Amino acid sequence: MSKPSIPKGTRDFGPLEVGKRNFIFDTIRSVFVKYGYQPIETPTMESLSTLTGKYGEEGDKLLFKVLNNGDFLKKADHDALEQKNSVRLIPSIAKRGLRYDLTVPFARFVVMNQNSITFPFKRYQIQPVWRADRPQKGRYQEFYQCDVDVVGSNSLMYEAELVQIYDEAFAKLGIDVTIKINNRKVLFGMAEAAGIADQFMDMTMAIDKLDKIGEDGVKNEMLKRDIPESAIEKILGMMKLSSLDDLETSFQDSETGLKGIEELRTFHKYFDLKESTNTVKFDITLARGLNYYTGCIVEVAANNVQIGSVGGGGRYDDLTGVFGLKGVSGVGVSFGADRIYDVMEELDIFPEEATQGLSLLFIAFDDAAHNYAFDCLNKSRAAGIASELYPAPVKLNKQMKYANARNVPYVALVGSQEMEQNVVALKNMETGDQILVSMEELIKKMS
């Protein structure tokens, strides 16, 4: 019999890891709720027609497809099968796919529920997504996203609010980050200024790889996409600009580019009213390759760990339009929970409470004490204390070994003497100190 295994790019999580992950989710969720966002959930699977064409050329390749039920080859395109043409074959054997992100399913949700939600609609969603990417450090095929979006308003106030959410949540998590902001209209202005407006998507897909392949790699990528070398030099020159004022000079012939600069300045009018904890800066090289972004775009990088972005998002003016609901603008950002976990592990910044599950373990010396301890256990649980009783009054060493393995901070020892006095012997596992206390005193001490 072969050893059991799990698919590549996925992971099991034990109690310790789940406790830490829940700390991340709870911290981020608390900020979402504070800013007035409401929770929703969408299915693991979506129709492939919902997902395809929304993420760009690269994204479509990374979609996990789900085979049709039953004999999926019965209705297969046999010509495509014989020719081994997977692109033609897929529509005939797979009509569903695992969700690639939470934004496109959210847009679909908005369209389907437009008559029962109130606009502007502010939602958050914490669920797993799947991408058929090559697994590596900080990159998995199954991972969680924590998304927060608002649809039904063009106000750039929401861009400022979402960056504030990033700033506050990462401060609460104890992660020092840089929040980079740009605008897709600014990128289009670069394409216009370079005379390649019709190759805008080719340009952005190349720029989006800057962190991975460097400036020379971006240049080669654009050459492969048939962008003229003269245009490439102009683009690389503009990529070195860090000031909106300097950029404005280059955009005199680009109405769209100037509009992007105006939107970035409006964002700062809102955002700069409140002092931020983390660095927030304009980065003209930020591209966010997904097709649906149309305005401000945001990306977050941890400053002390080499792991890639830990969050990103932006404005999408008409994502619901592809599902039949025109003119509903939206903006949202996402937290990459798995990368955040890896960052916090590497920096060793998880607080003690994130891994503290069991607070109190009762240990009994004999059968009568075990029955008494079970009554005490009920009282401690009724008081909200995470408690447990070792299942049998076996040797003390064995029970204490279990207490140490569970990393429990307090042990309540019960024998005949404790029963006679109607108390327990409460032992502090860190200091070794031990005192006799009634259950009322124990509950008061631990509450």
Structural commentary:
The protein has 447 residues and is an alpha+beta fold. It folds into 3 domains: 284 residues, BirA Bifunctional Protein, domain 2 (2-Layer Sandwich); 36 residues, no CATH class; 90 residues, Anticodon-binding domain (Rossmann fold), CATH 3.40.50. The protein is 42% helix and 19% strand. An 8-stranded mixed beta sheet has the order 1-5-6-11-10-9-7-8. Strands 13-12-14-15-16 form a 5-stranded mixed beta sheet, sandwiched between helices. Strand 15 and strand 16 form a beta hairpin. Helix 7 packs across helix 13 and helix 8 packs antiparallel against helix 13. It is elongated, with a radius of gyration of 28 Å. The mean pLDDT is 92.
CATH architectural designation of the largest domain: 2-Layer Sandwich
Rounded average pLDDT: 92
Count of strand segments? 16
- Shape from CA axes? elongated
CATH superfamily of the largest domain: Bira Bifunctional Protein, Domain 2
Separation of termini? 50 Å
Number of helices: 18
Physical arrangement of strands within the biggest beta sheet: 1-5-6-11-10-9-7-8
The helical percent reads 40-55%
Count of individual domains: 3
Low confidence ranges? none
Query: What would you report as the Rg, rounded to the nearest angstrom?
Result: 28 Å
- Could you name the CATH class of the largest domain? Alpha Beta
